[in-house]
Amino acid sequence: MIGIFDSGIGGLTIVREIFKQLPTYQITYFGDTARTPYGNKSNETIITYALQDTEFLLAKGAKIIVVACNTASAVAAKILKKKFPNTPIFEVITPAVTKSVKTTKNKRIGVIGTRATVASKIYEQQITNLKDKLTVISKPCPLFVSLVEENWADQPITKMIARKYLYSLRHEQIDTLILGCTHYPLLKHVISQKMGKNVALVDPAEQTALQLKTYIEENSSVQKQLTTNNEHQFFFSDIAPHLTELAKRWLGTTIKPQLHHIA
Amino acid sequence: MIGIFDSGIGGLTIVREIFKQLPTYQITYFGDTARTPYGNKSNETIITYALQDTEFLLAKGAKIIVVACNTASAVAAKILKKKFPNTPIFEVITPAVTKSVKTTKNKRIGVIGTRATVASKIYEQQITNLKDKLTVISKPCPLFVSLVEENWADQPITKMIARKYLYSLRHEQIDTLILGCTHYPLLKHVISQKMGKNVALVDPAEQTALQLKTYIEENSSVQKQLTTNNEHQFFFSDIAPHLTELAKRWLGTTIKPQLHHIA
User: Fold this and answer.
1) Per-residue pLDDT tens for B86-114?
2) How much is the pTM?
3) Partner of B176 for a Cys bridge, out of A100, A109, B10, B104, CB 3.0 to 4.6 A?
4) Mutating which of A143, A181, A242 best tests the B interface, going by the most B Cβ atoms within 10 A?
5) CATH among 3.40.50.2300, 3.60.20.10, 3.40.190.10, 3.40.50.1860 for B94-204
């Protein structure tokens, strides 16, 4: 099956996109909720965790690995690819970067994310590596995660906070905005409203699922290895009381979270 | 000196109170920012972390330990006291519980905290253990932490969110409210405004510092062991870019954060 891991629950937005774009394939999810977030940890620690997460999914029978976490994508994806050369490994940053570079016309791209993602400058670096003469403007929006987890996406408060956070970006004349945090696609309607119609939003979850879909369609040998049923499994290293409720809301289906304890 | 540990930066509100009430004693702070928050971790893990944090402070020369973290106070304080019988160990829950029971007249106490603290029911249990026939009403306010860290304490948005969170508590006729999260004292003015003059706020940081002060004054042998200077030290297991700025805002003084890497 397809194995997906994240530092927590945010990666369920990637699951949602995979359900949408690749509805027939079985997935196994691992959310490292006991050690979330990865964003404020050292590279050494993040790499150790990402290796453990990947090994767990491979032991469960994963034939493809999707790194749903922005931080682990930035810090550990290259090392995972080296360490597991026979397993296709996908991450969320490259597909979003590629799409944003293709989309922008005025060469001004915005990036929003957690404080840790913005401080890492990973999107800026990758965009500039891919194509120079592009301007990247970043803005951390730390409250967006809590607002999504509170189920306040449609509340007036969320619109006010979005206006406050996006104010400076709106005056930067960007025409493309990357939603650089797994939770943000759930605020897409609010962000889109505040940024206006002339700004294209790039959703890394959507782009990653699309890249995955293309890859599977083009590689019949991989396709044959994947199980096609909906007996999906969801593992977490810690199960908080509101986890099932959040997952139901985001995925539109009830999951049975299983505990995978990581020491 | 006095050793204080917390799962992150929130415990600096206890430092603030100790500076206020015991300005002459040297303190050493350890914030486990690399593994924050403790609230969603298993008891076993929290105990392991609390033991490591305490051992680090003892090795640095601490003669008194203050557990600033609500979760570690609830889960690990008893075990720390057994493990280190010769070191006075203070935690934040008992002083707040004692104060709230003394304060309430109508026997209705409210508790606000993170989702994890509220789910643990630790305040309810301790209040009921101390005195029965009291009603405790709890309400998680997860966004308060992010609002404080954004320095939005005085923004209209924070007032709106406080109104939303505290609405149900206001209708529960409580006369005493425990601020059951290290960050919340920094929103005291907003919470007080929303709850009205008839609700007494109990600040665990203030009560813990008061208990500590009384203890030191009454124990001259301990008092003699403590260093009286202001060469305070601040260790963190991870140093995020905005840490120094936050600490300056909260403590009113610049700190030099030192890295203490925990594997």
Assistant:
1) 999 999 999 999 999 999 999 999 999 98
2) 0.89
3) B104
4) A143
5) 3.40.50.1860
